[in-house]
Amino acid sequence: MPSKDSTPPPYQSAAKISDSQCFPQYTASLKCLEEFNSDKSKCQEHFDVYKECKKKEREARLERNKSRSLFS
């Protein structure tokens, strides 16, 4: 098993769900599914909140990246 000091993965910018601002909404969705034996209809509100969070997170990322150019 490699140590934590080994070479980092090639894609440093690859996001982890645990680094997301939406991680609490994500875990709430999973907990809901667990609580209701994977009955998605009982967890729709959690899914909607998570989806909205991810949408805002994506919009913010696009806005930040707007000023950056690969060709300048």
From TrEMBL:
Against InterPro entries, the record matches this protein to:
CHCH, Cys_alpha_HP_mot_SF
Domain CHCH: start-end pairs? 22-56
Q: Superkingdom of the source?
A: Eukaryota
What keywords appear on the UniProt entry? Answer: Disulfide bond
> Any keyword Ubl conjugation?
no
Full protein name: Cytochrome c oxidase-assembly factor COX23, mitochondrial
- Native species: Cicer arietinum
- Name of the gene encoding the protein in the UniProt record: LOC101513343
